[in-house]
């Protein structure tokens, strides 16, 4: 059985992420989607528990997908869940440099390799940061995120009037 780990901030998960998980779920036996606290980014919009809930709701149609959260090295999580590979999505050339650096670093420190799955062109512009900004100002995000995420963003920004953190 081949397990892969798909890590990310997922703050929040969007349709581009969903597409990558759908592809991984067709290619591999088991996909573990993990939302990790990214110390390079300021505190997020949704906490890890809420991100996990939204990921699970968005991927409920996929039988071989599990959702978890973690605050540690991604390679340690990969070993813990017995993943053969880390899977990452690539949207554009701009993603490539940092993703290659992370992949090479992770292989160097652990031997865990990373496989890249290209994003569909229809999703290659999607970014959680931009979706948060659009939602914050009441813009239309329903075509970019799963329904559970659209609801959560709507609640966060229209009902509780919370400020955005980017
Ligand atoms: O969605 P993102 O923000 O691009 O995801 C980046 C993430 C969370 C996958 C990356 O920051 C990560 O792997 N963090 C865990 C800590 C770690 O292992 N750092 C070393 C990476 S070379």
From TrEMBL:
Enzyme Commission designation: 2.7.7.3
Function in brief: Reversibly transfers an adenylyl group from ATP to 4'-phosphopantetheine, yielding dephospho-CoA (dPCoA) and pyrophosphate.
Pathway membership, UniProt: Cofactor biosynthesis; coenzyme A biosynthesis; CoA from (R)-pantothenate: step 4/5
GO molecular function: ATP binding; pantetheine-phosphate adenylyltransferase activity
One Pfam family hit: CTP_transf_like
Signal peptide: none
Protein name, as recorded: Phosphopantetheine adenylyltransferase
BP terms from Gene Ontology: coenzyme A biosynthetic process
Source species: Candidatus Neomicrothrix subdominans
Family designation: Belongs to the bacterial CoaD family.
Quaternary structure, from the entry: Homohexamer.
Span of domain Cytidyltransferase-like: 5-133
């Amino acid at each position: 059985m081949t397990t892969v780990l798909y890590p990310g901030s997922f703050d929040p998960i969007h349709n581009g992420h969903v597409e990558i998980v759908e592809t991984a779920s067709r290619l591999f036996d088991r996909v573990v989607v993990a939302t990790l606290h990214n110390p390079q980014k300021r505190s997020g919009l949704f906490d890890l528990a809420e991100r996990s809930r939204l990921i699970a709701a968005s991927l409920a149609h996929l039988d071989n997908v599990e959702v978890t959260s973690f605050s540690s090295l991604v390679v340690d999580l990969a070993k813990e869940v017995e993943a053969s590979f880390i899977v990452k999505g690539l949207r554009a050339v701009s993603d490539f440099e940092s993703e290659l650096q992370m992949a090479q670093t992770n292989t160097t420190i652990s031997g865990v390799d990373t496989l890249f799955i290209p994003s569909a062109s229809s999703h290659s512009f999607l970014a959680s940061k931009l979706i948060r900004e659009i939602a914050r100002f009441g813009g239309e995000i329903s075509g970019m995120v799963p329904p559970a995420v659209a609801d959560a963003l709507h609640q966060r920004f229209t009902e509780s009037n919370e400020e955005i953190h980017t």
